[in-house]
Design brief:
303 residues, alpha/beta, Rossmann fold, five-stranded parallel beta sheet, four-stranded parallel beta sheet, 9 strands, 40% helix, binds phosphoric acid mono(formamide)ester, binds norvaline
């Protein structure tokens, strides 16, 4: 069977995504240490060209909990930092490892890795998407609210052009929910991606409109990794987009707040909101572990 990659949300059909989320629930419910034979003898390389805390630790710990060996590679200290082509790295890693997770800048590099690798490649964040995070977040929404995300209203407040917003947009079509984006005009998803989402998305410049009736309210940093030169311009552009308790008043009574972290308190979210009763951000961070374990099993065991 041909290897499967997870480079974007739509690389999975709805049925396949449901298989992964169902397995994640089982893995989370199982006693710690009970699936240590699941990927015994396997190895997974996790390659970082950008900083990470959650992705690095959740992959490394998750791989260990499945009985496999993790190999963490950064730019510093590997030949990637000295210009070795991605496609050569991909072919070599494929000879040692059973899957590769890769965090990089442009999608072109991710695709080069995926095309040259003969083992599954998982997108661990690019400038254009963070699908593994959003798959985990769908799990968190359904766990927290106790029902399917299908038919829900998910508000996205802040940088609508970010990797996170764009993966949420893809998820809206796959899982059949509505994504209401509140973002300044110059920080919205690419037109083609909005068109592809059709009636699953609406866009406004008013956070209150997006949040009205929402089941889930979501935000992310205003300045993503690699955009540091634009930080001042972005602070001005996103003025008024901070998630606060008064902004959340228009959401549903049981609405939850998500943030993939790291957070900048006082910018995209205030301290009271991230620490408040609606916040599910710590469960959200934990669920990276369970869902990524399920995804790795799903990709590796079918090969
Ligand atoms: N949410 C997330 O991917 O966090 P890290 O950048 O710490 O991995
Ligand atoms: N949009 C953020 C997500 C961090 C996990 C970034 O790319 O920096």
């Amino acid at each position: 069977m041909n290897k499967r990659d997870f480079l974007k949300i739509s690389d999975l059909s709805l049925a396949e995504a449901r298989e992964v989320l169902t397995l994640a629930r089982a893995l989370k419910a199982a006693p710690k240490g009970s699936h240590v034979d699941r990927l015994r003898g396997r190895a997974v390389a996790v390659v970082f060209e950008k900083a990470s805390t959650r992705t690095r630790v959740s992959f490394e710990v998750g791989i260990g909990q499945l009985g496999a060996q993790s190999v963490i590679l950064g730019i510093e200290g590997s030949q990637l930092g000295r210009g070795e082509p991605i496609k050569d790295t991909a072919r070599v890693l494929s000879r040692y490892c059973d899957a590769i997770a890769y965090r990089t800048f442009g999608t072109k590099k991710l695709l080069e890795m995926a095309h040259a690798a003969t083992v599954p490649v998982i997108n661990a964040l690019t400038d254009d998407g963070h699908p593994v995070q959003v798959l985990c977040d769908v799990f968190t929404v359904e766990e927290a609210l106790g029902r399917s995300i299908a038919g829900m209203r998910v508000a996205w407040v802040g940088d609508g052009s970010s990797n996170m917003a764009r993966s949420w947009l893809e998820a809206a079509s796959l899982f059949d929910f509505h994504l209401a984006i509140a973002a300044p005009t110059e920080f919205r998803p690419p037109v083609a991606e909005l068109a592809a989402a059709g009636a699953h998305v609406s866009v406004t410049g008013d956070p209150r409109v997006a949040i009205a009736g929402a089941d889930v309210v979501n935000t992310d940093v205003w300045t993503s990794m690699g955009q540091e030169d634009e930080a001042q311009k972005r602070l001005l552009a996103f003025d008024g987009y901070t998630l606060t308790s008064s902004l959340l008043e228009g959401s549903k009574a049981d609405a939850i707040v998500l943030h993939c972290l790291p957070a900048h308190r006082g910018e995209e979210i205030d301290d009271a909101t991230i620490e408040g009763p609606r916040s599910r951000v710590w469960d959200q961070a934990e669920n990276r572990l369970h869902v990524q374990k399920a995804l790795m099993c799903w990709l590796i065991e079918r090969g």
